Each structure stands twice: as structure tokens, then as C-alpha cells.
Amino acid sequence: MRTVKKMASAVSIAAFLLCCCFVSSTGPQDDCDVYAATGSTFTVPLGYKLKESDNLKWFKDTRVIFYRRQKQVIMGKNYDVDSTGSLKLTKLTKDKSGRYRPEVYTDGENVGGNLPSVHLCVLDPVQKPTVTRTCSPDKTKVTFTCNVGQSEKKNPIKWFMVDKKTAEKEIVKDLTRPVKDVLNARFFCNVSNHVSSETSQPVQQDCKSSFPFPDTLFGISIWVFVGGGAGIVLVLILIVIICCIRTKRKRRLRLKGKNVLI
Prior knowledge:
Elements: H1 2-26, E1 34-37, E2 42-44, E3 55-60, E4 63-69, E5 72-75, E6 87-89, E7 98-106, E8 109-110, E9 118-123, E10 130-135, E11 141-147, E12 157-161, E13 174-178, E14 186-192, E15 197-199, E16 203-204, E17 216-217, E18 220-221, H2 222-261
Parallel strand pairs: 1-9
Antiparallel strand pairs: 2-6, 3-4, 3-7, 4-5, 7-8, 7-9, 10-11, 11-13, 12-14, 14-15, 14-16, 17-18
């Protein structure tokens, strides 16, 4: 029984640690000090004036990535740091995200003290979005959709109308407007992250109805006029048909009378 309890406790602890690891690995990058784009270059400042007798170490998280004892490089390359001892990061990739921290020693003594560290986050630049438009079935509303890359769906989206200085209130993927309010307006969207910003080409709605007419006319439903007009047309058609029949009958009687006289 005691063994079972120990096993249950061990399983609970393992599950808790696994959850903690998952949260830490997938959590948001809100604690980043600096953001940089993939492929770019970033220099982490040392914040200390080096002497020739100083030994310099640079850490990425807990791992030493550069070590120079006075003028001799033990780990890394000479070009990994500049003349001031600041760390140069080139051709950045996402795996270079992390916390960078320097240490300066002389004769085994930490002469640099608690030097500031930098938490760097490397992000891909956003792709240029595109805008598509969709008309409602009754052609009274139009929806503009800002299409972004799969990895950019969580990035903020802003909508703008051409010739209007301020952005639209909506910050979502889809922007819906009544057609009558945006007959000639052109809309474009902007998507951005911490390292870049891209804007789409402007798009104009094309949902104009082929036969637009108001719902009412002089306060009376338009369908009353439509029904009345249809009734008048029907009466006119009947009158024309009756006139044609009477004309044919008269012509037939006239021809018959001529034949009798002959």
C-alpha cells in the first residue's frame, strides 16, 4: 500500500514538472527585452570598459558561448565580439533567441559585477497580406477579409480606408460594411509584429446591385407600385388581344361580303 502511494506521488510530481516545462516552452514572449528579425544582426552591449588583463565570458542562458582569457580566445571566434567586448550576433535564426549575459574576471575575481543581461527574441518578418471581398446574398453588405500567413494569424491587424487618416475601429480579420456606405471606398489592411510591418494593396467593393430600387416610394411600399404596374400591363395586353381579335373578325366578315357580291 505504501509503495502504491509512493508511485502515485511520483507520477503526480512528474506530471506537474511536465506541465511546467510545457508552459515555459510554449508561453508568450512577453519577457523579451529586445526583438530582432531572422537574418538580421544584433549586438549585445557589454556595459563595461575592458582592460587588457580582463577575462571575458559570454553566456547564452546557462551555456558559455564565448570565452577570452586576456587576448587569447578559448571558446568562440575573434569576430564574435567587437573592440569593446560586446557580443555580435549575425544572420540571426530563431534558435538564437535566449538570454545573453556577460561576465568579466581578473585573477579569478568578478570585476564586472552584476552586468546587465539581454533577453533576445528572434521573429520572422511578417508577409505581405492580401485583401479579398465577399458580397452578401442580397448585395447590401460587403465583407473585406485580410489574408495573412499561417504563422501570422495571432499578429494584430489594422484596417484603413484610402484618403482617411485614422484607422478603422475593427482589429479583426474580417471587416463588414453596408454597400451604400462604401460605394467608391477602397480598403487595405496592415499586419505587424515586433520586427516588421506589411500593408496590402487597396481593394474596392463590387457588390452594386444590377437593379437598385428603394424599399418605399412616397411612403408606400415599392411592391404596391410593382403590383399595380404589373396589373396595368396585364390589362393593356388583354386590350391589345381583344382589339386584334376584333380586327381579324371584321376583316374576315369584309372578305366574306366581297365574295358574296361576286
